[in-house]
Amino acid sequence: MSLAEVVNVNEYEARAKQKLSKMFFDYFSTGAEDQWTLQENIRAFGRIRIRPRVLVDVSDVDLSTKVLGYKVSMPIMVAPTGHQKLAHAEGELATARAAAAEDTVMVLSSSANTSLEDVASIGSGIRFFQLYIFKDREYVAEVVRRAERAGYKAIVLTGDVPRLGNRENDIKNRFTLPAHLTVANFVGIGGGTSILTSKTNESSLAAFANAQFDSSLTWKDIAWLKGITSLPILIKGILTGEDAVLAVRSGVAGIMVSNHGARQLDFAPASVSVLEEVVQAVQGRVPVFLDGGVRRGSDVLKALALGAAGVFVGRPVVYGLAVDGEAGVRKVLKILRDEFQVSMMLAGCRRIQDITRSHVLTESELPC
Ligand code: FNR
After folding, report:
1. Which of 29, 55, 174, 287 could form a disulfide with 309 if both were Cys (CB 3.0 to 4.6 A apart)?
2. Which segments constitute the FMN hydroxy acid dehydrogenase domain (predicted)?
């Protein structure tokens, strides 16, 4: 089948599987333990119904919106995913070019194989930097300063990795990074990243993370982060109203409702099923974003109707990258954009602000 025949982003997964080694495909595709949350991220969108309004003039539809004050062409953005050179030789550079070309935000992962300066060197595009806080705080502070100097517009602090979740496939495969790749922005940390390229009896990803990540992180560390950067901070990995309140109190500029693509705590709820709880707790004080299981433009409409200011997409972008590099990522973003536009028009929404809570029914609201 030629690429022209790809009609939805799910089709990229099987194609990526054909292209990648089992070790790398498993790294991208699987989740933690029983992978209940992995399936639930998708199923939960399937339980939401859209309430379409008809006879609305949708001859002129505008998908553009603002994220932290920056105009983007659509509320569909690129989530941070690590080790993109395992998917394609051009890795994060290809993804960054595609996101810029589609006029949307890319979040660069702390686990990128490309330095943040190299990614920034492509020029155009709005990029955020996703941050893991390692035990070596001085190193982390320097990376944050580098991101600020290189023009990144926000720090996305990932809060749900005090240690790595049990990713059984990575353990079975004894995941290691090929010798030519590094965690490019943290090469010197912990005496170098050799641990990621050396064979161990476990996933070397887990060995690296569990040795280097600071599992003592608390809300007071947001104050530390605010003290070393003037960039706005988004907190990623919030799944409860309680934590959303603490996040707002700690002074973050936005919240990302996320279960890390089901790679951390299995049996954590699907992100979309707790979105409204978070939105209600936040009471409009900061924007709330969502990732996890977004595979269709209709999913985007559902998330926005439940109060999200935008969504981020992880695996489909990586699969597009694996299959066709920059062009593959662009196609994934284009498909999602087109589907979102169709969903908006068929639901009777001309602008992003027209998408309201009354456009969806959640499971408890479904007629018996
Ligand atoms: C991730 N995710 C992630 N998150 C993060 O904060 N830092 C990271 O380095 C990574 N790396 C990473 C690698 C891979 C292969 C995946 C699939 C995911 C989580 C990611 O940002 C996002 O939360 C999920 O991917 C969203 O779910 P979907 O879109 O993949 O269903």
Report:
1. 287
2. 1-365
- Provide DSSP, 255-310: EEE--GGGTSSTTPPPHHHHHHHHHHHHTTSS-EEEESS--SHHHHHHHHHTT-SE
Atom of ligand 1 nearest to the CA of 112: 9
pTM tops 0.90, yes or no? yes
Q: Classify residue 301 as left (phi > 0), alpha (psi -120 to 50) or beta.
A: alpha
Mutate to test the pocket of ligand 1, among 10, 20, 81 (most ligand atoms within 8 A of CB): 81
Question: Hey, is 63 helix, strand or coil?
Answer: coil
Is 200's pLDDT higher than 80?
Answer: no
> CA end-to-end span of the chain, whole Å?
42
State CA 96 to chain mean position distance.
14
Determine the Cα–Cα distance for residues 307 and 289; give it in Å rounded to an integer: 8
For residue 52, the CA-to-ligand 1 centroid distance in Å is 32
State the CB neighbour count (10 A cutoff) for residue 143.
20
- Write the DSSP assignment of 19-33 as a string of letters: HS-HHHHHHHH--ST
Q: Which of these, 349, 282, 270, 273, lies nearest to 306 by C-alpha position?
A: 273
**Structure tokens that stand for 9 in this block:** 């982003």
Q: Where are the beta strands (DSSP E) in 93-239?
A: 105-108, 126-131, 155-158, 233-238
Model pLDDT for residues 126-149, shown as the tens digit of each residue = 999 999 999 999 999 999 999 999
Residue 142 to residue 258: CA distance in whole angstroms: 27
Task: Please tell me the distance from the alpha carbon of residue 82 to that of residue 79, in angstroms, as a whole number.
Answer: 10
